[in-house]
């Protein structure tokens, strides 16, 4: 990564993945032996083990994310809070922390896409694209057009620079772009669609986006697939019913994703296919 990229991406972006190991060591020192024993008694061996495991997974995932970035000369890693960023639209408080999708997880999802999802005729859309990691991963496939929608201007700037940097060392096969826009106001293109969500915002925003997508598809019925992924069981718990209750989507059977070392935790995901005539 060159100096221009490093300076450009550091402004106003508070990365919570940085210094995690140092914070953990400092906390252990502050607790002392007695404090550690008290915590073990309070949370038990299992709870303490899960806490340690979670931190190891975070550190490991961040290491591999930064290694991927160095390979491609980009800055997509990290865990970025939104509260300090400049956001367009009324939904700043309803967005979730920006984290990147691991390459292994994304490729596993793509391997589970049904055969009738034609990449060559579909626009790949990542709603809440953050720094654009998923856009760069999608660029390794046959989508002719890839669009990221992001409502935080600082993240849009970083994503655009990442796209520019990525194609300095990779052959450009797709039209990849980022729009600074609230997802609820985004107008979907008239092509076939693969709409990708990685737990980008809370349910009130998601409901409006799905309504907008359905209205768009009603005006021009065409192939549309939704991918929803999250490392939170609760997010999948409400996202899948929201999509299915529209009466216009079928859920596609998929394999359970394994845990990948380049991911913070195992990702739960689901794939849905639009059926224009399904609802009576």
TrEMBL record:
Annotated keywords: Methyltransferase, Transferase
GO molecular function term, any single one: methyltransferase activity
Record-listed E.C. numbers: 2.1.1.-
Domain Methyltransferase: 122-181
InterPro entries for this protein: Methyltranfer_dom, SAM-dependent_MTases_sf
Pfam families: Methyltransf_31
Enzyme class: transferase
GO BP annotation list: methylation
Keyword Methyltransferase set for record: yes
Protein's recorded name: Class I SAM-dependent methyltransferase
Species name: Ahrensia kielensis
